[in-house]
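The freezer alarm interrupted the setup, so I double-checked each line after restarting. Inputs confirmed:
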Amino acid sequence: MTHHQILIVGGGAAGLTVASQLRRARPGLEIAILEPSGDHYYQPGWTLVGGGVFSLEQTRRPEEQLIPEGVRWIRDAVSGFDPAASSVTTASGDTLSYDVLVVATGIRLCWDRIKGLPEALGSNGITSNYSKDTVDYTWKTIQEFQGGNALFTYPDTPIKCAGAPQKIMYLADDVFRRSPELAGRSHVIYATATPGIFGIPVYAAPLREIVARRGIDARYQHTLTEVRPDTKEAVFTVREGESTREEVIPFAMIHVTPPMAAPEVVASSPLAVDGPGGWVEVEKYSTQHVRFPNVFSLGDVSSLPNSKTAAAVRGQAPVLVANLLAHLDGQPLAARYDGYACCPLITGYGKVIMAEFNYEGEPVPSFPHDPTRESWLMWIVKTKLLPWIYWNRMLKGLPHERRFMPGVVH
Ligand SMILES: Cc1cc2nc3c(=O)[nH]c(=O)nc-3n(C[C@H](O)[C@H](O)[C@H](O)COP(=O)(O)OP(=O)(O)OC[C@H]3O[C@@H](n4cnc5c(N)ncnc54)[C@H](O)[C@@H]3O)c2cc1C
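Predicted 3D structure, all chains:
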């Protein structure tokens, strides 16, 4: 058995940020990251890959370039958690023990919960920005679209980046509108399992106006259950009050956002919440596990009840790091996470509503302008500033002020 002072499981946006911040805060700490993948992707760039603005390669970096100096990278996957014994097992059969564990394994994409989808994805106009293997195909599909129904779906589970299913729709609609004939032949449908366009009311209002302005056919309470590639049909369960009915919608193209949950290894462990999703059950302000005090979690796999985004990780990581160090020192955990999350809602080429909000759903803007309005400046922030901050500040554990508004203290 190998022992580590700090063991971080998952070297994605959250795991790398925490490792870097811990090294800077206390260089003497002994830290290991358990991460099987040789590449790391800037997933917030994938909407722009699907919209033909970025290449997929622009969003990729080798993992070894991102592991902070002095941190040990164990290229392996966790296969079991034993928090009572403060240890994990790995896919290659090792057992690793720890003083403190940070769980940051990200989310599981449940493609197989939609009948016919795993085999069909990436052909017949069936695509998704949620996989690096099909995000290029999204752009190809949009470019080759010749009219008919363009369907964009949203599942009945929490997902990462709740805005992404509609952002790609607005980009696609812009492309279709470049040709008046094509625009006349296209019918854009947003079929979502949710009861409304967006969960945060202050940002839902302008989105409803945009949907109406574009003539998009928004269908709520629609959960995708099956894709039929041969006949190009999508099957939905539609909730109407207490009852449900089936609806079959033909499509020329479909962008699918799959249902999501915690990875099985987490969901089946003692760390998981008792209920759907199987997220790591942490206290929402401190990020500490509710039953195992030497376990912390952040990012998509955590039960933190906010929007699952890389931007939220920016808010969570400093709190987790401060509380983890306090735990090591036997001090009370004083840092509190306010639920900050950000979803840059791309509403067309050159237009973004920078939706920033906290646990209360209140807008917490970083910039001195009305956050509910579409803005070209925020498009520049989304396409240039945020990727730069991610690679050069956030993953390196450097301060990355999320509030750029002079004089505003949150
Ligand atoms: C299409 C799309 C658009 C998005 N848009 C935005 C946006 O505009 N803004 C925004 O802020 N966020 C956006 N996001 C969300 C953002 O990418 C995630 O919220 C963020 O990456 C979460 O970080 P994480 O570390 O929790 O998960 P990840 O970054 O996914 O990292 C998880 C890591 O855990 C590893 N792992 C998995 N299983 C195991 C295991 N068994 N053992 C060890 N390691 C394991 C994985 O290999 C991975 O490296 C978007 C995501 C997508 C897909």
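Quick read of the result. Residues 109-260 form a domain with the FAD/NAD(P)-binding domain fold (CATH 3.50.50.60).
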